[in-house]
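dumping these here so i dont lose them again. two proteins, back to back, each one seq then structure tokens. dont judge the mess
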Amino acid sequence: MTIVEAEAVSRIRSHPHLALFTGLALLLATLAGPISDVSAKAPPLATTVFEVSAYAAPDSTAAVVAVLPADAEVELTGNAAPGFLGILYDGQEVFVPAQYLSLGTRPGIDTATTVEDAPLLEAPLPDADVRLTIPEGETVVLTGATVDGYDAATYDGAGGWLDRRSLAR
């Protein structure tokens, strides 16, 4: 037993009501369950809305690697470029126009471009911890959630929150 643990046990023994309150606090914390987490992770899967070409690079003039059928489930890599999202196809990353992918019933996945170096935050708060800083001019995937002027987004596989003022749509 460490010195700190021994001191805690001594305090509890000398103050029985402290043990009761500590026990009640632990019981309530257990019953309350986990605190809900406002998450901004990128969804790993999307569905093609129509038959779509998959390109070797995020450019419609790049080589076509494959033609994907409508309603194909694809795995997103987390990489994005203006109008394109990276997906895995046959073990390699290829790029598909974002408007031909869907996360649900609405076609298209929204992207935006950073208009300044933008901190990707762990929570939609101005004083939240910064996961990483996204350089100006980079494309991010918007996951659809918004809270108090912050958009949930992913960049290079990392999810977080961006101040809406640092984005151009």
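---- next one ----
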Amino acid sequence: MNVQPPNELLQRIGNGDREAFGQLYESTRDQVYRTVYFLLNQKQDTSDVVSEVFMELLRSLPSYNDDKPFRSWLSGLTVRQARNWNRKLWRKFRLFERSKSMEIEELQEDAAVAVLREEDRSELRINIEQLPFRLKAVIVLRYYQDCTVEEISDILNIPAGTVKSRHHHALKKLRLLVRQPELAKEDSVHANG
């Protein structure tokens, strides 16, 4: 999000100027989409969450503090919307699993679809997706949004030291996943148990 919209543009949006909102949307859409895509558990929901981000932007615009960078504010909205979406899906998943326990059936995926899906995924992205959300958010903001530690701290509302710690822990976990995927899974099980 390399855009730093002038206060005039934000004021025009606040006054209902659709053209101003269109300009803001066009200049920030790709970065918001990319961030949401990397943070979501269900990739097919990316467009829905991006829409939610921009609706929340409109609702939250009156609370925007123009003393802070717009990029950090929008990134914070994006991360919160992705986190909320993942939580909502997890609750639905648990309810579905309970109802499904009555009738268990084997679902087989079409082989061609599976091959195409695997071709679309890079090893790194797969490993990033395995990280817990709190670590994944730091990695996505740092490397896909090019945010500084201070910006990440503001976006996630955590101390800079915590950002550095999560960053270090995430990189350590990613290195382990790349070198020895089976060992990393065992390490994760022991850490959680």
